[in-house]
Amino acid sequence: MKLTLFADHHQVHLLDDRDGTDLTDAWSAQATDDRLAAAPGIIGIGTEAADDVSVELKVLTKAPPADLAKWQHVTSGSIEVTTGRLVAMGCTEYLPDAKRLKLKPGVWALRISHKGLGRREQVRVQLWPGAAAAPRVEKRYVAPAPKPPKPVKAAKNAKAAAALAREGRTAEALEALLRFAGEGDGAAAASAAVLLAYQGRWAEVVPHALALLKNPAAVYAGNVFDDLGALINRCAVELKDPALVARAAAVVPPAMAPRTKAVILDNVVPRLATGAPDRTRFDAAVADATNGKRFKGKPDVLALHCFALAQGFNVDDELLARYDPTRLNHTFDHVLAVARVHARRKSLDAAWAVLEAQLRRWWPMDTSQVAPVELLVDPLLAPLMTPERCAKVLATPRGPEGRP
């Protein structure tokens, strides 16, 4: 019998088709190392990966000759089959749907051979009538020594250094960005400012943020200017220097004056929900969208539209209920909106849990952007960003570099 079984928790099971078989206490540290656990009426076979595994069951009349050379790991033992049916299944598979092999009731010796470890694993199980035997390793797999990491090439420019930062290689990226910023690269200064802010190095943030505000043309996305303006306001608070805001506004080119007033002087941050929830209009809009033709046959688009309605009408309960972290069409802005609801409710741990699970979804609009500045400047979210959580953000691959 040839099967493909999903080895959830790195194991597949062979068991007598009866109640009461259990491996809970059998998976000791030694059994895990041996890749074989045994209890009355059940055998657990350990696998290299929690993935699909090819399993072949071969019923023989007598003990076969050992062919250890062909296999990477080989174990042996026995199982008593009282029902005449041996079940083969992944450990979380639904038992009634699992495959069954007819066997004569009694004790069956078995040899379990593995190959393809580290790739697509193949497991051969040979069974023959025999006597009870304790689990034993006949050949132990020794994993090859890991290949030495390839030497990391130094970043050639600010764009490459920002990519290193988004990979989670903060120290290496920051060293390169500071070097490029010192050479007059405004984009590198913008990236460095954000990394320094996440590390709480507020005095060092200021000159790098000002370098970008003086030369906004160094980047092509206006929200980088907005990010750095918001960070200047945070620096003014952290350094207890309110005059810093006016000094920053004074260095901005005249062409950016309207944006300067909105972003730096008025300290504009990501839009927060304001006003009372309007459930009546929300319910009407959802009913119209659900019953109309616009979203017919488009359940994912409808779900996203209803989420946006909950956000627009400030219906927090619906925003939480309609947020599905498994939906690929949710953006990091949606994640921020859900986290803000928890933060408004003083559930900072819940807010962080939402953010932490989706950090990889954050996406830059400019190649200089290295991390979500909203988490540092949003009055609802900033209080939950402890030094440990800031370090977690920087260590998590995100944006194009964090895409699965």
Task: Please tell me about this protein's structure.
The mean pLDDT is 90. The protein has 404 residues and is α+β, with helices and mostly antiparallel strands. The protein has 15 helices and eleven strands. The chain has three domains: 2-139, Substrate Binding Domain Of DNAk, Chain A, domain 1 (Sandwich), CATH 2.60.34; 158-265, Serine Threonine Protein Phosphatase 5, Tetratricopeptide repeat; 279-402. 37% of the residues are buried. The strands form two sheets. It has a six-stranded mixed sheet, with no helix packed on it. A five-stranded antiparallel sheet has the order 3-4-2-7-8. It is elongated.
Strand pairing plus helix content: what structural class? alpha+beta
Report the sheet-strand fraction: 15-25%
Give the N-terminus to C-terminus distance in angstroms.
35 Å
Low-pLDDT stretches are none
- CATH fold node name of the largest domain: Substrate Binding Domain Of DNAk, Chain A, domain 1
The CATH architecture category of the largest domain equals Sandwich
